[in-house]
């Protein structure tokens, strides 16, 4: 049996593929390469070389999750047991500029996927959700039972999809669904072979910092320095991507217990400001990342960090890596892949 990763060549998907392969799972990836690169599959192969039979344990399909014929072909051929649904557009700022594209891409792809899963009687799903579904939480840390809302179209697509999955489960309790609400993934694989490598100008903080440090970009723009935080910059819960990937391995194991519908925060429980990240990165790389303050970005909030106790109690998952490791692995990936 196989685990299907939609968007599996992307940042979080590729790291999850590595962890699943090394745990002995068979992995099938479908990706349309809209924000990833085909050569990531070769890098995954290099990472797991000598540990697994890659050619037997890994299959790749290039295409869009909204392509029902392609998905049906995959389900017919690959004996899919569970699905981890990563595929989707994911930039907060961009979603405010092109909301219709976000709604169409993220929601349509999920509906097509669910139809195909239902057709082939595959009812085990891990959904890649986000802390943005909490909107402007009234207190910190954030617990899974907090009210949900969203301040931007990207977050709304995640929230709508969560509601779709909750309605699906209410209608058919034979489904097993785990909603993983990510906080802010950064860092890269220890090998330096895979990391956050977006096409074009990065939307996320760490790849932007890395590219300024390596000289690819001139200056980091920090969106807002007038938030009610210790240094005026936004505070987030940054989690190492390998820790996050391991959370998916735990979620797959949870599905196999016929868990029903579960919701888990994946974060560290610690909030760091943008300037905290910049300063920690400078310590690692021995340089000075140039930055400037610009206006706040539409849809952003001031502070957001998790309580992840539930994930530990129910899945045995806990983030292990610290901020220094997040910065070190990010910098290592950038320098190893500098072009």
Relevant terms:
seven-stranded parallel beta sheet, 18% strand, alpha/beta, 339 residues, Rossmann fold, 14 strands
Would you kindly provide a brief summary of this structure?
By secondary structure, this protein is an alpha/beta fold. The chain has twelve helices and 14 strands.
3D architecture notes:
This protein is α/β, with parallel strands linked by helices. The protein has a domain at 2-188 and 238-267: NAD(P)-binding Rossmann-like Domain (Rossmann fold, 3-Layer(aba) Sandwich), CATH 3.40.50.720. Helix content is 41%, strand content 18%. The chain contains twelve helices and 14 strands. The strands form four sheets. The chain has a seven-stranded parallel sheet, sandwiched between helices. Strand 5 (124-130), helix 7 and strand 6 form a beta-alpha-beta unit. The longest helix is centred in the N-terminal third of the chain and has 21 residues, at 99-119. The chain is globular.
């Amino acid at each position: 049996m196989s685990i299907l990763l939609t968007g599996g060549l992307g940042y979080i998907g590729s790291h999850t593929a590595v962890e699943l392969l090394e745990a002995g799972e068979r992995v099938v990836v479908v990706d349309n390469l809209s924000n990833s690169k085909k050569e990531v599959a070769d890098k995954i192969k290099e990472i797991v070389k000598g540990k697994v039979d890659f050619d037997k344990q890994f299959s790749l399909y290039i295409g869009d999750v909204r392509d029902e014929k392609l998905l049906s072909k995959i389900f017919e051929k690959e004996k899919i047991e569970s699905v981890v649904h990563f595929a989707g557009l994911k930039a907060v700022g961009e979603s405010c500029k092109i909301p219709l594209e976000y709604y169409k891409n993220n929601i349509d792809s999920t509906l097509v996927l669910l139809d195909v899963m239902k057709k082939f009687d595959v009812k085990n799903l891990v959904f890649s959700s986000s802390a943005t579904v909490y909107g402007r939480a009234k207190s910190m840390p954030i617990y899974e039972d907090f009210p949900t809302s969203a301040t931007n179209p990207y977050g709304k697509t995640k929230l709508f999809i969560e509601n779709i999955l909750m309605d699906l489960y209410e209608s058919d309790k034979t489904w097993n669904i785990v909603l993983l609400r990510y906080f802010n993934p950064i860092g890269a694989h220890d090998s330096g072979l895979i990391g956050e490598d977006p096409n074009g100008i990065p939307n996320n903080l760490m790849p932007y910092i890395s590219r300024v440090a390596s000289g690819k970009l001139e200056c980091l723009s920090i969106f807002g320095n007038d938030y009610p935080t210790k240094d005026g910059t936004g505070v987030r819960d940054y989690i190492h991507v390998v820790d996050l990937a391991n959370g998916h391995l735990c979620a797959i194991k949870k599905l196999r217990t016929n868990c029903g519908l579960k919701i888990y925060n994946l974060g560290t429980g610690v909030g760091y400001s943008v300037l905290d990240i910049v300063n920690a990165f400078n310590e690692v790389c021995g340089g000075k990342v140039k930055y400037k303050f610009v206006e706040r970005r539409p849809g952003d909030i001031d502070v957001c960090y998790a309580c992840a106790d539930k994930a530990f109690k129910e899945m045995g998952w806990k983030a292990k890596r610290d901020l220094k490791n997040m910065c070190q692995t990010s910098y290592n990936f950038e320098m190893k892949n500098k072009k």
